[in-house]
Amino acid sequence: MSGVRVLVGTRKGAFILTSDGKRDKWEVSGPHFAGWEIYHMKGSPADPNRIFASQTSGWFGQIIQRSNDGGKTWDVPGGEKVPSSGEMPEGKSNKFSYDTSAETGKPLTTHQWYDGTQHPWEFKRVWHLEPSLHDPDTAYAGVEDAALFRTTDGGKTWKELSGLRGHGTGPKWQPGAGGMCLHSIVLDPSNPDRIFIAISAAGAFRTDDAGKTWKPINQGLRSQYIPDPTAEIGHCVHHIAMHPQRPGILYMQKHWDVMQTGNAGDLWKEVSGNLPTDFGFVIDVHAHEPETIYVVPIKSDGEHFPMDGQLRVYRSRTGGNEWEPLTKGLPQNNCYVNVLRDAMAVDSLDKCGVYFGTTGGQVYVSSDAGDSWMPIVHDLPAVLSVEVQTLR
Amino acid sequence: MIRVVLPPHLRKLTRSGDEVTVEVTGPVTQRAILDALEARYPVLCGTIRDHDTLQRRPFLRFFACSEDLSHEPPDAPLPEAVANGSEPFMVIGAIAGG
């Protein structure tokens, strides 16, 4: 019996929504980690019962939680209570220290602040967790201030892949409104050495040697809000997505503009086409149709809500340029929510399911590839992230 | 036995009530209590003080015996009432927002 498990991170805890393959009746569990911000949760493709969660707080810092039973129970790996005092703690699972070592690290530079001055690089939180496609003990973490970390022991310890932060353009990176975050991590299923990441506001980067060295892949992007609109660095990329069967083709929702590349980021072209506005945060690809993509247009960078109070998902079946609004089941009056960058996902059931969450606390599902929608839940805290596991 | 009162967010991590106890050998100071607390509950590493600098996180404060001890040196002796367990050492999340 197939089913789905939807992992929802919110401002005040995590929720897990489960259904069978029909996706019309749902069970809701949570809040898990009540009161904490859950920026992201994601399950391991190699072991769906293993889920990683980023639990964070401006007061208490960063915690990494892990479940080995599909989200029923959780532990902080390496953080177990010590039977008696006297031993020094490990507690490294929560520790994200930039690697400045002589052997493998890079010096900690400054980055550009909002006013153009230089600002110290400081760890704040984990925005995105990307489990390995093959090993349940390996996962990547994208953090603010921007850097990429990796665990190979199931989350007990994390080590920075410092070649990204230290590759030379760091002092030109700057925070977007949400902070200087590494928010997108896309693993190439055809090439284990190739990883794509994106940073607000620096741009997209690619490694072809498993994270040792990185190159900016921003040619073709045009951003009017930076001094040189076509600069190599400085673009506010909001999210990138890939279809696993065509790993050379990437789609991007930039601050403004929806973009596509057919050569793994070497050159991007705009595919905004007939969208009513091409500002937005999310973008995702249909599980079975590599050229069918979804965005949720947001009015502007100053007004983070749908145009005209109408919540509309736009779908293109041609890899962009030609878009159709999807409205059936979505509020078409007085809707002023936002859909944040990690808050859309697709399942891989025969009829592809599409999911997204809003800052108003709704999580919507379409079990017919976007033709119609229904809310799974109405009144959660503001949704930060949505991921889906297809269970077979 | 030293009594430590934790804020609600951290109780969820320790899976404890509002108060936990730790043993401290030697002088009872902030550093000694926090070392013992993190040794007993490694999940708290990084949540009360920074992993690397061991500085108190900026939005947390330490109270005991109706005194704000947040800005006392970490190696200063704490009141006898904390050392003998009659009063707790309190970790407080600063009030912010509305």
Explain how this protein is built.
The complex is a heterodimer of chains A (392) and B (98). Helix content of chain A is 1%, strand content 39%. Chain A is mainly beta. In chain A, the strands form eight sheets. A four-stranded antiparallel beta sheet of chain A has the order 3-2-1-29, with no helix packed on it. In chain A, strands 9-10-11-12 form a four-stranded antiparallel beta sheet. In chain A, a hairpin with a 3-residue loop joins β18 and β19. The longest helix of chain A has 4 residues. Chain A is globular, with a radius of gyration of 20 Å. About 1% of the residues of chain A have low confidence. With 98 residues, chain B is of the alpha+beta class. Chain B has one domain: Ubiquitin-like (UB roll) (Roll), CATH 3.10.20.30. Chain B is built from three helices and five strands. The longest helix of chain B is centred in the middle third of the chain and has 11 residues.
Summed up:
The complex is a heterodimer of chains A (392) and B (98). With 392 residues, chain A is mainly β.
CATH superfamily of chain B: Beta-grasp domain
Measured as a percent range, the helix fraction of chain B is 10-25%
Care to count the β-strands of chain B?
5
What is the count of helical runs of chain B?
A: 3
Mean pLDDT reading of chain B? 93
CATH architecture of chain B: Roll
Radius of gyration of chain A: 20 Å
Ends apart, CA distance between termini of chain B: 36 Å
In CATH terms, what is the fold-level topology of chain B?
Answer: Ubiquitin-like (UB roll)
β-sheet strand percentage of chain A = 35-45%
CATH class category of chain B? Alpha Beta
| Order of SSEs of chain B | EHEHEEHE
Distance from N terminus to C terminus of chain A (CA atoms, Å) equals: 6 Å
For the largest beta sheet of chain A, what order do the strands appear in spatially? 3-2-1-29
Q: Note the beta-strand portion of chain B.
A: 15-25%
Biggest pleated sheet of chain A: 4 strands, antiparallel
Report Rg of chain B: 12 Å
Say how many strands of chain A there are: 29
